[in-house]
Amino acid sequence: NAWLEWMWNRNAIKAVILTFKEPFGTEGRGGYFDQYGIIRDIMQNHLLQVLTLLAMEPPIEADGPTAADHVRDAKVQVLRAMSTLTLDDCLLGQYRGYAADETITNKQTNTPTYAAIHCKINTPRWSGVPFIMKAGKALNERKCEARIILRDAPGSSFLFPSRPQLPPNEIVLRLQPNPTVYIKTNIKHPGFDSQPVQSSMDMSYSSKFDMAKDYNNPDAYTRLLLDVMRGRQASFVRDDELRRSWEIFTPLLHKIENEDIMPVLYEQDSRGPAVADDFVEEKTGYVHNPGSLPGVEKHLQNIQLSAL
């Protein structure tokens, strides 16, 4: 996509936020989970894979018999350019009631069930762009997405003095559920009001294609098993990639465990610790925006229906 190429760098992108949310807790698996925590369980592997795919330079080949090494070479270059993580780079949380799981023997456990981590990629393309990884259990929804936040529109505070802080444009790649790409942009408020309001343009597989009749979008593990049978290795971690990923995370993990760093408590079925938005704002300058003005999206839907 040519429109993405010119903007996929520090000049246009303000921050990148990767999010993995599960709406359930350990549910009897606490004894296992308590040995590892959310960082080892999700972030050092799954989310880090998404980060490297987003941040890597275009590989020499993306498909074909020799593409696997080219893709993995590009991912390793990202990892080698990442700074080692410190305590200042992370926020840890634990949902209330986690230790009540009967399979957890240490009732004073400090194992995090939520973490937000600030990563730095020291390359000409990404220098100065904060990458945030967030993952947690017992949250308010199931979701895995990458949110690319673009830099603020120049002069917007002068153009619209009544709204000095316009929401930034965002490109959101939702991996699950219902894979979707959507762009959050500012449009004119419907009616006589000339103030901008945020809305979205989206491409959803379920709405653009007849997935039940003409197409099949298999889940991630099905695709991985098929790659195994076809001998395609691009989706699998190479040994140098694995070693470097642990070099980035291990000092932080040892610090948390050796100094008994206690996580912040948060309520189940919430967005996570109340201070998480403050942490993200401090590291990125991004202010959480819950969405458009009340009623605007419904109003726009009614306009579209009446036009049919």
Kindly describe this structure.
- By secondary structure, the chain is α+β, with helices and mostly antiparallel strands.
- The chain is 33% helix and 20% strand.
- The protein has 10 helices and 9 strands.
- It has a 9-stranded mixed β-sheet, sandwiched between helices.
- A hairpin with a 3-residue loop joins strand 6 (170-176) and strand 7 (180-188).
- The radius of gyration is 21 Å and the shape is globular.
- The two termini are 31 Å apart.
Sheet with most strands: 9 strands, mixed
Number of extended strands: 9
Helix content: 25-40%
Report Rg: 21 Å
**How would you classify the helix and strand content by structural class?**
alpha+beta
Number of helices: 10
Shape: globular
Strand content: 15-25%
Mean pLDDT: 87
Unreliable stretches covering 5 or more consecutive residues: 293-308
Report the order of strands and helices.
HEHHHEEEEHEEEHHHEHH
Termini separation? 31 Å
Q: Strand sequence of the main sheet, in spatial order?
A: 8-7-6-5-1-4-3-2-9
Key attributes of the depicted protein:
308 residues, alpha+beta, nine-stranded mixed β-sheet, globular
In short:
This protein is of the alpha+beta class and about 300 residues long. It has ten helices and nine strands.
Describe the protein's topology.
Elements: H1 2-5, E1 13-21, H2 30-33, H3 37-55, H4 67-80, E2 90-95, E3 114-119, E4 131-136, E5 143-150, H5 156-159, E6 170-176, E7 180-188, E8 196-204, H6 205-208, H7 220-230, H8 239-258, E9 264-266, H9 276-284, H10 296-307
Helix pairs in contact: 3-4, 3-8, 4-8
